[in-house]
Amino acid sequence: MTAPAPNAGTPRAADLARMVGEALAHASADSGPEAAAEIRAITDAMVRLLIGAPLHSDGKLTIVSLAIEAGLRRNKLTHKHTGLKDLFYALVKARGHAPEPVSEAAQARGRKHQEDLVRVRAERNDLRSQAQLLARIVQVLEIENHRLKETNAALEQLLAARTGVPDLASRRPPQP
Questions:
Q1: Based on the number of CB atoms within 10 Å of its own CB, is 104 exposed (0-12), middle (13-18) or buried (19 or more)?
Q2: Is the pTM of this model over 0.85?
């Protein structure tokens, strides 16, 4: 499989990314091998994206694709290696290729996801209110049950206190 023919600015942009990356990696060697490895991964990913040969991403010239291509989290580019992020944007701009617009299908999926999110949140809120209502009902039933038990205990005490009342049912002769 042959890579697409790069336009005139691409090899220079890729070479520039490679040179800057090597210089930064060499300069950051004092700050630890992890930082140097991140810089190398980012610049290698820049080169692959700029020449149109991505290995791990969709090949779009965006920071998200660059992070995926480099195998790093996006915040490494947006917070830690901001110089490399700016370099990438400058190389993309110099190349004359803006990031691809989001497709209609992706926009439709995004709208559907937003609608689903609104629906799910409404369901969640409804279920929360139902759960609160059920909790209140259970609490009222527990109070009523406790009161009935107290009333039952009081009635049993009254019946026990009335032992002097004769039981007329026991005095009747048995029915033949």
A1: exposed
A2: no
